[in-house]
Amino acid sequence: MNPSVKTTRVMTLLKGTYQFALNPDGSCCAFVLVDRSTFLSKLFPTTTTDTTSPVGAAENAGEVTTKDISTFLFPNTFLFSGASCCTLGFHTYDFEPGDDSNGNVEKRFVLNYSSWVSPGLFGTAFEDVTATSHEVVEIFNDPFVASDGVHNITPWWLAPNGNCQNNLETGDVIEGLPDATFPVAINGVLYHPQNEALLQWFEFQVPSNALDGAYSYPDENVLTGPSQPQNAFCQ
Length: 235
What we know:
Blueprint: E1 18-22, E2 28-35, H1 36-43, H2 54-60, E3 70-75, E4 77-81, E5 84-87, E6 89-96, E7 107-122, E8 126-128, H3 130-141, E9 153-158, E10 164-167, E11 184-186, E12 189-191, E13 196-197, H4 199-202, E14 216-217
Parallel strand pairs: 2-4, 3-7
Antiparallel strand pairs: 1-2, 4-5, 6-7, 7-8, 9-10, 11-12, 13-14
């Protein structure tokens, strides 16, 4: 991977579509809560030439291409839908129509929204790059979010955290568990990327043919066995 920081983009929200909390010293903001539907409508372009949205502006500037994995990182920005809160990240792709230059094949810009999480907002272990690491790893396993109903579909699985799904979402298996993150020190700073489920967990392999017989990485002790086969929707 060869990361490259691009131009800072701005999302403008109307009053009433978001809420916020101030820092202890009265400055803004400890965090911002944004209505999910509003956030999606503001993040993605409405036309191929739309430069008013962060994704559209980046695409038209050539800073996001179909050969990239792009992260749109927001500071302590969490999404809610009705009474449900909080989404701290998701991965997806923006699709635009093709043109003569690529044989009119649909263009897919693979990306994720994720929030940088300040210490203390979600406990002592879920912070900084936890959400980002979750989404970036899942992109590599499921870049198109199983949207066509064919690619990256798995047998139904039931995770220790209660999530029941049938796609290769490696972070969803472990999110929310007490040992979900794996602290890593880089240049004197302690970061908290998330542990991930390995392919062998989804394949119900016994024993796992991964290194050390593991089902999770980097902490091999998070998952000590595969998911048990499930009926559709785990019913």
